[in-house]
Every structure is written in structure tokens, then in C-alpha cells.
Write a structure and sequence with these properties.
Keywords: Coiled coil, Membrane, Transmembrane, Transmembrane helix. The protein is α/β, with parallel strands linked by helices and 385 residues long. It has twelve helices and 17 strands. It folds into two domains: 33 residues; 263 residues, Spore Coat Polysaccharide Biosynthesis Protein SpsA, Chain A, CATH 3.90.550. It is globular and about 95 Å long. The chain starts with a helix and ends in a 17-residue tail after the last strand.
């Protein structure tokens, strides 16, 4: 012992080095073995508005799709849907909106004026985000594609993130991977009858319907609608429709999509530390706007991916045309180029959530004390997946 005392006493530099190494060792040990437990307020459930810019409910296939996806959104606690169309534009017959409001309440749906669009009627992304942020009054705002199902376990994760970052007085955003699955749009006689009634109404109102029975453009005389809607109301009432809610079973054959796929952007409203006006006027439904938005959020607020093994469900995936020589894709590419050439996917988010544990750049931060549903993405043997 005397020898060691003399050694360290005469060589203070050696002692300092050893102490520094011990400090590094214990820091690494703690980061990789111990989580601080974060206690979520058991009485607080943050409210969320889902912002959607869907096609009008003018075919039975869209009716069947929206019954699946939008009901999954409204099953989320304290939720509502904001549709960026006027009510009569989105649902000329009023049948689907009445269905949702009967099931989820009169305040479950909000309608706005249509968002700004180009000469071909393609909406601009920036106005979609601005309208959603300005007109929502909930704790959280979620811009989402109309073909996305929110599965069980999503809200638990979002609730934990909101509680944690709000306690730090930080604004956060959330994204997740998606899993694609094929869904057979309901082809029962009731849905066929819906098509007949809708086509009859649209034809009488001089709407243009193309060969695939999809709506090209709609010039609807709404006063005429009010006069004639009673004639088909009884027929509509006689039609029976059900809402599927066993989403895991419906999407049981789901497959992982690329890590670059992002189909919703959720942002907390308080404290507001983000300038939403910085989003450029990308065209919706065209490639390049979503990786730019992911990277922009990652730069400006605390962006969290819900993990590599948790996904939302994407109905009937159709590959996006990513050709840069496509005129509208080219314009989105050019807009991204003029705005920093930003690009990111789920795997680039600064924060990630895995099995109730929050990581920052792979380092452990905290663990939630609320029980979360286990991950739902199918197991993959691809190390790059």
C-alpha cells in the first residue's frame, strides 16, 4: 500500500489518467445498462387532430377505404379529423360523414376550405401544413395520407413522447415506418348499390366521370342536391355497412416498406419552436417532398422515429413514380434543390423509440413507465431492412 501511495503521490498525472478512465467506464456502463424511468401522467391523454387531404367519397372503393383508415384514426383517444375540403365537396351525399359522426361524435370532423392547388388541381404541401397548424386546437397535429391505418400501440408511444418532451419544454415531431398490405375493397351488394346511387346523383348533376369510374372533376349544384337528397336518403338508410377494427388481422400479410417511407408527420403544438412557413410549395403525391420534410424537421425540432420494428399500415401500396424526368417530379426535385437539398428517412431521426425506451443517436435516455403494445412489424432477416 505504501508503494502505491508513493507511486501516485509522485505521479499525479498517472492518477488523473486513471480517474478519467474510470469516469469514462462508468459513464458508458450507465448508458448501456441503466435507464431512468419517466413517469407519464396517468390522467393526461393529449388530444390529436389528423389532417387529411383525401379524394371525395364518390366511389364505393373510396368509401370502403376511408371506413377502414379514418375509423382507425378516430379510435385514437381525444382525436378528430380535419379534412381540407368543404363537407359537400368531400361527401356529396353526406352518407359517410354521417356514419363517422354517429359513431364517433358530432365534433369528430372538421372541414376547411380547399387547400391551394396548381392548375391541374394538385394540392400544395405548404398550404396543407399551414392550414393544419393554424386551424387545429389540439395538443398534437398529425398530417397523414388517407390510405394509412393507425394500429394499436401508436397512441401509447405518442403519449409517452408528448409527456416527456413537454416536461423538457421542447417541441417534438414523430414519424414511423410503414408496412404495406393488400386489402380487398368491399364488393358486397351494398357497396355496389352505393356506386349506383352516387353515379346517378353525379350524372344528374353533370359531373364528369371517366371510364374507370373515378371522379375527374366535379361541378355540383348543391341547391339541386338539397332538393333531391331526400329521394335517395331512404335507399341509403337501408344499406348496412360495418367498420373493421381488427387491424392486425386485416393486415396480417403485411410486409415492411423501405426505411425511407414516411406517411405521417406528427408535431406537438407547444412550445412552438418551428416556423411552419419554411416548408416549400411541393406538389402533393409526387416524389421528393416527404424526405425533404423529414430532414427539415430533424434539423429544427426533436424528431423521433417510432423505431425500426413498429409500423403503421399502408393499404394497397402502388409504387410511386420517382423518375426525375417526370415534369411534376422534376419540379419537386428542383424545389428541394433550392431549399438545401435536404433528404432523410426514418433511420436518420435523431431520436428513436424501441420497446418503450427512448434513444438519442443510439444512446439510452429514458424508459416509459406505461406498458406499450409490442412492435408489430414482421420479422426480417435482411440486415439492411
Amino acid at each position: 500500500m505504501y508503494f502505491l501511495y508513493r507511486l501516485f503521490h509522485q505521479n499525479e498525472l498517472l492518477l488523473l489518467i486513471i480517474l478519467q478512465l474510470l469516469n469514462v467506464f462508468f459513464t458508458i456502463f450507465c448508458q448501456n445498462s441503466v435507464f431512468m424511468i419517466f413517469h407519464v401522467d396517468e390522467d393526461f391523454f393529449p388530444s390529436v387532430t389528423f389532417i387529411s387531404c383525401p379524394f371525395p367519397v364518390t366511389t364505393a372503393s373510396r368509401l370502403s377505404l376511408y371506413q377502414l383508415t379514418m375509423s382507425s384514426w378516430l379510435r385514437t383517444p381525444n382525436s378528430k379529423i380535419m379534412i381540407t375540403l368543404k363537407r359537400e365537396e368531400f361527401d356529396p351525399l353526406g352518407f359517410f360523414t354521417n356514419q363517422l359522426e354517429e359513431k364517433y361524435g358530432q365534433n369528430s370532423l372538421i372541414f376547411t376550405d380547399s387547400i391551394e392547388s396548381d392548375e391541374n388541381g394538385i394540392p400544395y404541401i405548404d398550404d396543407w401544413f399551414v392550414k393544419g397548424m393554424d386551424k387545429s386546437t389540439t395538443d398534437l397535429v398529425c398530417w397523414i395520407n388517407s390510405d394509412i391505418v393507425i394500429p394499436d400501440g401508436w397512441y401509447d408511444r405518442i403519449r409517452f413522447l408528448h409527456s416527456f418532451f413537454f416536461s423538457k419544454r421542447k417541441q417534438f415531431g414523430a414519424i414511423s415506418r410503414r408496412c404495406d398490405f393488400n386489402y380487398r375493397i368491399n364488393n358486397s351488394s351494398n357497396y355496389n348499390m352505393y356506386n349506383v346511387l352516387m353515379n346517378d346523383y353525379l350524372t344528374k348533376n353533370h359531373s364528369k366521370i371517366n371510364k374507370s369510374n373515378e371522379l375527374d372533376g366535379m361541378t355540383v349544384d348543391y341547391e339541386h342536391l338539397k332538393e333531391n337528397i331526400s329521394k335517395i336518403e331512404n335507399k341509403l338508410r337501408s344499406l348496412k355497412f360495418s367498420f373493421d377494427d381488427d387491424y392486425d388481422e386485416i393486415a396480417k400479410d403485411r410486409k415492411r416498406h423501405s426505411k425511407w417511407g414516411v406517411d405521417f408527420f406528427l408535431i406537438s403544438k407547444k412550445p412552438m419552436q418551428l416556423n411552419i412557413d419554411e416548408i416549400p410549395n411541393f406538389r402533393m403525391g409526387r416524389y421528393r417532398w416527404d424526405p425533404w420534410t423529414t430532414a427539415w424537421l430533424n434539423q429544427n425540432i426533436l424528431l423521433v422515429s417510432l423505431g425500426n420494428n413498429f409500423c403503421t399500415y399502408h393499404v394497397n401500396h402502388k409504387p410511386t413514380d420517382r423518375r426525375a424526368d417526370d415534369p411534376l417530379n422534376k419540379e419537386n426535385f428542383e424545389i428541394a434543390g433550392r431549399n438545401g437539398k435536404l433528404s432523410a428517412g426514418n433511420h436518420h431521426a435523431k431520436y428513436s423509440l424501441d420497446d418503450g425506451k427512448l434513444f438519442k443517436y443510439g444512446n439510452k435516455l429514458v424508459k416509459s413507465d406505461i406498458k406499450m403494445r409490442k412492435d408489430n412489424a414482421p420479422i426480417s432477416n435482411d440486415i439492411n431492412d
